[in-house]
Amino acid sequence: xxxxxxxxxxxxxxxxxxxxxxxxxxxxxxxxxxxxxxxxxxxxxxxxxxxxxxxxxxxxxxxxxxxxxxxxxxxxxxxxxxxxxxxxxxxxxxxxxxxxxxxxxxxxxxxxxxxxxxxxxxxxxxxxxxxxxxxxxxxxxxxxxxxxxxxxxxxxxxxxxxxxxxxxxxxxxxxxxxxxxxxxxxxxxxxxxxxxxxxxxxxxxxxxxxxxxxxxxxxxxxxxxxxxxxxxxxxxxxxxxxxxxxxxxxxxxxxxxxxxxxxxxxxxxxxxxxxxxxxxxxxxxxxxxxxxxxxxxxxxxxxxxxxxxxxxxxxxxxxxxxxxxxxxxxxxxxxxxxxxxxxxxxxxxxxxxxxxxxxxxxxxx
Length: 365
Known about the structure:
Layout: H1 2-20, H2 23-37, H3 41-44, H4 50-64, H5 70-82, E1 90-93, H6 95-100, H7 102-111, E2 130-133, E3 138-142, H8 148-160, H9 162-167, E4 170-174, H10 190-193, E5 198-200, E6 203-206, H11 209-218, H12 226-241, E7 246-247, E8 255-257, E9 268-273, H13 280-288, E10 294-298, E11 307-313, E12 320-329, E13 346-347, H14 355-364
Helix pairs in contact: 2-4, 2-5, 11-12
């Protein structure tokens, strides 16, 4: 009898793990929380679309009963989140799963990857933030990311090359492949490109029990600045006062950025973008394009900005991460960007072999 108990004890962790990664359970969790917590749910699923949506859900639930592995369940969960056509809303493989099964993780991710334009050999992009002087008139700022870690790098470059930045008339800012990060990363660029009032539409946030819980946990982050704590505290209080509604911590429909100084240089700013320029990089484009100095070059940006402030939800299976945007731009519904992107002032043919040189020559005309 003791031997039997010992054998059963060995299987308890395995049974528990299998229950956590039951696909029907994880699909139900994802469906429930997207409906309750996603800032875009009611915008995406209108009353006249409800029957189609419910039919889609029913078909996924049926398939979930037969999905008995991490990879098959991942495909199912991604099929659900992709229904909303919002790149910020997603189920992703956890980093530990990726580390354990790198080849499988790569293949699974490729199933949902966006088609990428094949660039000519001379168009290999530099994935390091950098500054270059191209000639006696022109500088090139290559900014491949606006992640938090890049803010210090960008600010350091702006400080190091301050004299050149203030004396050369032409700037090319290359944002190709920049999938975003945080708006704080590009704050140091705004004074240089500023030519007049910049109008900003704030974000509003969906109040729900789970969103309040997650933001309250975020307050415990020891690395969070005092300003960040004050903002979160105010946001949580507003959510508690207005359950199941949207709250706007700024209290405004829009606000203006004004500065006392308009720099003589740069006189012209060209921003180079592509279909992979997304999220916070598009937020920069929205502000920059309001300047008389700025023109956008390339092709439409990614179109991933309307729903933001992504949070991680504790989906039962630890092989997955459920990421849900709880914020929504006040630009909506009048001026959407998702799945449209920012349009360039000047379209550059994707076959153009040297887009930086193309832009440089255009600025000299």
